Target: Condensation domain-containing protein
Amino acid sequence: MWFLAQWDGASETYHIPMALRLGGQLDIVAWQQALDTLFARHEALRSVFVSVDGQPQVRLLEADSGLPLSQHDLRGLPDADMVLERLSAGEIHTPFDLDRGPLIRASLIRLTLSLHTCFHVTPFFRDESDTGFG
Model:
């Protein structure tokens, strides 16, 4: 992926989007803490790829840097479904900055007082060792 980004520019080709519909009251502070814990625990999410003498080098973001969570409140908007679709498309089509990271994005979209959508996107990385070829 790093090579392709260097050669052809950043692309959303390898993005994996996921949306979760959450019902009931949501403790946003607890949700953010859960995302931060997930981010701290998994080095793959904190990895960035920098070029050193034309070669990719992996660097890790600090475990305590936290995962940014963008929040959007669509309660009461007459065109909330259209706005939700536009926000989702924007997340999917925004390329990741492999040099700066993080390599995950999360958004929390409030639809009603007790209905939220959590949308997150990660790039797809596959190691040859996963396939038995490495």
Notes: The mean pLDDT is 82. Residues 15-131 form a domain with the Chloramphenicol Acetyltransferase fold (CATH 3.30.559.10). The CA atoms of residues 30 and 36 lie 10 Å apart. The chain has one domain: 15-131.
